[in-house]
Amino acid sequence: MTKNVLICGVGGQGTVLAAKVLSQAALSKGKQVLSAETIGMAQRGGSVTSHVRIGKNAYSPLIPAGKADLIIAFEAAEAVRNISFLKKGGTVVVNDKIVQPTTASILGKSFDAGDMLNYLKAIKANVIRVDAEKISERLGSSKAVNMILLGAAAKTGVILKEEILSALKSLVKPEFLTLNQKAVEEGFIFPVDK
């Protein structure tokens, strides 16, 4: 059975590394993996989306609309922007943070995380809110948000924590391994709001 995971955020948040870890975790268990990133203007805070498809019935690296089992959103506005990919009964793991788009800042407008999260709940999505910023502060690194969210996503059963921890060993520099593993563990045990 194919599992489809969409990872979304903005440039610099670590979405591409998260997708690589997820892909490596599946590959290490002998599963077929197809993945693709749409990076665009990521270096300027633009949207970054990674598609990861795990299983024998995936024939294209891009997840069709309405077929994602899981969306891992590094910020709430990107979760809303990509919600059309979520299948009925799918789950959204979302960081509470909002990254204000440049266009909104120029116009003097702002997005509210609460509005975005309420929208996700209103459309009957299974929503797991994670205060990844709070956990990363406790760990002493803002760069741990991606692994915190992977850890929280492992609670869904679509991906497995042990496989993520193992994949980190081959993808992360040794001096950052302990921090990233701890971030996965913290994301997995941190209380989440459903």
Keywords:
194 residues; 8 helices; single chain; globular
Give a description of the structure.
This protein is α/β, with parallel strands linked by helices and about 190 residues long. Helices cover about 40% and strands about 20% of the residues. The protein has eight helices and six strands; from the N terminus they run E-H-E-E-E-H-E-H-H-E-H-H-H-H. The chain has helices at about 15-25, 75-80, 100-105, 115-120, 130-140, 145-155, 160-170, 175-190, and strands at about 5-10, 35-40, 45-55, 70-75, 85-95, 125-130. It has a six-stranded mixed sheet, sandwiched between helices. Helix 1 crosses helix 7 (about 160-170), helix 5 (about 130-140) packs across helix 8 and helix 7 (about 160-170) runs antiparallel to helix 8. The longest helix is centred in the C-terminal third of the chain and has 16 residues, at about 175-190. The protein is globular and about 50 Å long. The two termini are about 25 Å apart.
Question: What is this entry, summarized?
Answer:
This protein has 194 residues and is α/β, with parallel strands linked by helices. 40% of the residues lie in helices and 22% in strands.
**Assembly status:** single chain
Please give the number of β-strands. 6
Mean pLDDT: 86
Residue stretches low in confidence (pLDDT < 50, at least 5 long) are none
Query: What is the approximate shape?
Result: globular
Could you state the order of secondary-structure elements as H and E? Answer: EHEEEHEHHEHHHH
Which class best fits the helix and strand makeup?
Answer: alpha/beta
Please give the order of strands in the largest beta sheet. 2-3-1-4-5-6
Which radius of gyration do the C-alpha atoms yield? 16 Å
Distance between the termini: 26 Å
| % residues in beta strands | 15-25%
Helix content: 40-55%
Largest sheet composition: 6 strands, mixed
**How many alpha or pi helices?**
8
